[in-house]
């Protein structure tokens, strides 16, 4: 038997990075309305584990589903796709 494990990988924007080793990532998707046939934006916010505290607000990141780290945190940071431009 082979393990055909499907990993869920999502791309989103970091909306909160204040806690230690935890980031909140907002994932946006477009769905089609069943009656009006128009595309609507829907968003989901997930908490992800950031082991090295390398993310900041506004970064575009890729997260992967993993084992639960805590009650609400069951995603892990896979990579930082694009760093945000910080104005000092």
TrEMBL record:
Q: Which UniProt keywords apply?
A: Ribonucleoprotein, Ribosomal protein, RNA-binding, rRNA-binding
BP terms from Gene Ontology: translation
The family database entries (Pfam families) matched by this protein are listed as: Ribosomal_S17
Q: Which residues form a coiled coil?
A: none
Cite the CDD domains for this sequence.
Ribosomal_uS17
Role noted for this protein: One of the primary rRNA binding proteins, it binds specifically to the 5'-end of 16S ribosomal RNA.
**UniProt subunit comment:** Part of the 30S ribosomal subunit.
Q: Kindly give the PANTHER family that the UniProt entry links to this protein.
A: 40S RIBOSOMAL PROTEIN S11 FAMILY MEMBER, SMALL RIBOSOMAL SUBUNIT PROTEIN US17M
State the similarity comment.
Answer: Belongs to the universal ribosomal protein uS17 family.
Protein name in UniProt: Small ribosomal subunit protein uS17
